[in-house]
Amino acid sequence: MHDSTTVTITTINGSRSYSFDRFIKTVAVYILLGLVAVFTVGAFSILFLLGEMENYNALKEQHKTQLITNNELEKNIIEKRTELTEISDKINDIESMIGISAQTTTAAVEMKTRLDTAKISAIERMLMLRLIPSGMPIAYRGQTSDFGWRYHPLRRTQREFHTGADLRAAMSTPVYATADGVVELVHSNPNVGFGNSIGLTHALGFKTLYAHLDRIVVTQGSFIQKGQLIAYSGNTGYSSGPHLHYEIRYLNKPLDPVSFMEWNLQSYEEIFEREKKVQWDSVAKGITWQWTLLEQLSSQREQKLPAPSRLSASSTSMDR
C-alpha cells in the first residue's frame, strides 16, 4: 500500500480507480517542477527581451538623431569650407592688387596672418594714396599742354619749361583736391600770371597748384580732404582758353602730374618706376610711421573709454 498511489475518478457512469506506484509519482513531480521552471525562465526571458527591445529602439532613435546631427554638421562644414575658399580667393585678389605674393595655405592661423598682412598693406597703400596727390583733379577731357619744354601759347616765340599739365575743361567745371592737405595760398588776381589760383600743402613734402580758376570756394589755412571741392575752372591770368593748370611738386621740385593722375591701387607699383625724382623709400617709411602712430592713438583712445555700464551709471546719476 505504501509503494503505490490510488487515484479514483468518479463520473455519472460510476467510479474508476487507478493505482500508481511511487516511481511514477516521483517522475510526475519532477515533470511538474520542470514545467514550472521552464515557464518561470521563459517569463523572465520574455521580460528581459522586452527590456532589450526597448533599449534597442532607444538606441535606434539615438542613432537616427545622431545621423541627422552629423548630416547637418557635414553640411555646415561644407558651407564653411566654401566660405573659407571664397575668403581665400578674395585675399588672393587683394594680395594681387596690392602686390603681396599669394600663399597656397588655408590654415586658420596663417589665414589670419594673411588677412592682417593684407589689411596693413592695403591700409598703408590707401593712406599713401590719400596723403600724396593721386587721381584726377577734374573730370578728364584730355590735355591741351603737357609737362616739359614748350612754346608759350601766348608768347609763341619764347620757349619755356611748363611745370604742370593743362587739362581741358569748360568754364566752371568743379575742381577737387587730389590729397589731404592745407590751403597754403590763395591768389585772386584774374589778370596776372596764373590768375585765380590755389596752392595746397600735403604730407611728406608734396604740394599741388590749381591755376586759371574762375571761382575759389576755400580760404587760406583751411584743412582740405582728398576729393573735396576747392574751386571751379576758368580762364583767368595768362590763358589762351578755359582750362585747369595743375602742378605737383615734391620738395619744391616740379613733377609730371600725369604719373600721379593715373596712380591708383591697381597701378600702385607703376609710379615708383615712372617717377624717379621722389625718394619713395623714405616716403614709404613716413607712411608706415604715420600708420603706426594712428594705431597707437586708436589703441590709447579705446583704453581710455569707460565701460558701457559705467557710461550708463554716469548718465543715470546725471539724469537724477
Count, helices: 6
Gap from first CA to last CA: 114 Å
The quaternary organization reads as: single chain
Total beta strand runs: 14
* Uncertain regions spanning at least 5 consecutive residues: 102-106, 308-320
Major beta sheet summary: 10 strands, antiparallel
- Structural class by helix and strand composition: alpha+beta
Helicity range: 40-55%
General shape: rod-shaped
Strand content: 15-25%
What is the helix/strand order?
Answer: EEHHEEEEEEEEEEEEHHHH
Radius of gyration (CA) equals 47 Å
What is the residue-averaged pLDDT? Answer: 82
Explain this structure.
- By secondary structure, this protein is α+β, with helices and mostly antiparallel strands.
- The protein is 46% helix and 24% strand.
- The protein is built from six helices and 14 strands.
- The protein has helices at 22-98, 108-131, 257-261, 270-274, 280-304, 308-319, and strands at 4-11, 14-21, 143-145, 148-151, 159-162, 165-168, 174-176, 181-187, 196-201, 206-216, 223-224, 229-233, 243-250, 253-255.
- The strands form three sheets. Strands 3, 6, 7, 8, 9, 10, 11, 12, 13 and 14 form a ten-stranded antiparallel beta sheet that branches. A two-stranded antiparallel ribbon has the order 1-2.
- A hairpin with a 4-residue loop joins β9 and β10 (206-216).
- α1 (22-98) packs parallel to α2 (108-131) and α2 packs across α5.
- The longest helix is centred in the first third of the chain and has 77 residues, at 22-98.
- Mean pLDDT is 82; it is low at 102-106 and 308-320.
